[in-house]
Design goal:
Strand content: under 5%
Structural class: mainly alpha
Distance between the termini: 42 Å
Largest sheet: 2 strands, antiparallel
Helix content: 25-40%
Strand order of the largest sheet: 1-2
Length: 97
């Protein structure tokens, strides 16, 4: 029996390389100006109001951090996935440039 806190993820994409190629084909054009910050990256991906990344108003906040706009956590703060990843890397002695 697996521990309760283990999540098993199954994907229809056969490899990481294939997944990257699909992501670039679908969304790479939004990043043609080569953003240099996480804020620029998020802004580029949400520049098209009909794009899937705009279907959930908390998506940019989940990446950049800030206060949740909707849902059960509305008004509460999060540091975001990007800052969380940087903090985890820092704890391992790794810094990104």
């Amino acid at each position: 029996m697996e521990p309760r806190n283990t999540i098993t993820i199954y994907t229809a994409i056969p490899s990481t390389h294939t997944e990257v190629m699909l992501w670039e084909a679908n969304w790479g054009s939004y990043l043609a100006n080569k953003p240099t910050t996480i804020q620029g990256f998020v802004s580029d991906l949400t520049s098209d109001p009909t794009h899937m990344y705009n279907s959930f108003p908390n998506w940019p906040i989940s990446i950049e951090g800030g206060k949740w706009k909707t849902g059960p956590l509305k008004g509460q703060s999060t540091k975001g996935t990007y800052k969380s990843a940087l903090d985890a890397l820092k704890e391992c002695g790794i810094t990104l440039q």
